[in-house]
Each structure stands twice: as structure tokens, then as C-alpha cells.
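ok new one. same drill as before - C-alpha cells go in, u give me an amino acid for every spot. 91 of them this time. try not to just spam alanines like last time pls lmao
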């Protein structure tokens, strides 16, 4: 929970995905590690980030950047779980 006591999307995804539990099959883990943003999405994130750094984002662009960041964090949770699963499978 954050300072106000509200639960964030990141906290909810963390509890749903449980990135600290490596319980995926090796096959599933390898497939999850292949997930990534498209090149056009990566370019859009770069453009939005540049605008944010210069203080030029409008409300809609700020919301769009937040969506990209949320998806990125979720992908990292999934990939962390996948890497741990592969480590556990080889142990």
C-alpha cells in the first residue's frame, strides 16, 4: 500500500503473478520471456518520456505513458517469475 493507504495496480499484479514463486513449467517460462513491447510501442514510450522530461506532456499523453509503464512493470513481474522458474527447473 502507498502512503495514503490505497492499493496500486503494481501491488495487485505482484500478488496475482507472485514473481517470487518460480512455479512455471520450463516451456511456459521460456514463452513468457519472449514477451515484449513492439518496436512502435518502444518508440512511442521514448517520445513520451522525452516530452515528460521536458515538462511538455499533456494530460492524455501522461495517462498514455502511465499505461505503458504499467504494462512494462507487469511484463517484468512475469519475466522475473519465468527466470526464477527456469533456475528452479535446472537446480
Amino acid at each position: 500500500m502507498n502512503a495514503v493507504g490505497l492499493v496500486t495496480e503494481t501491488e495487485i499484479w505482484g500478488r496475482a503473478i507472485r514473481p517470487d514463486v518460480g512455479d512455471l513449467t520450463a516451456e511456459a517460462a521460456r514463452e513468457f520471456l519472449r514477451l515484449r513491447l513492439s518496436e512502435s510501442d518502444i518508440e512511442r514510450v521514448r517520445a513520451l518520456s522525452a516530452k515528460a522530461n521536458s515538462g511538455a506532456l499533456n494530460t492524455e499523453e501522461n495517462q498514455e505513458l502511465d499505461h505503458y509503464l504499467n504494462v512494462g512493470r507487469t511484463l517484468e513481474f512475469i519475466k522475473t517469475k519465468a527466470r526464477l522458474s527456469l533456475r528452479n527447473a535446472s537446480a
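Residues 59 and 65 are 10 Å apart (CA to CA). and btw Residues 59-90 form the longest helix (32 residues).
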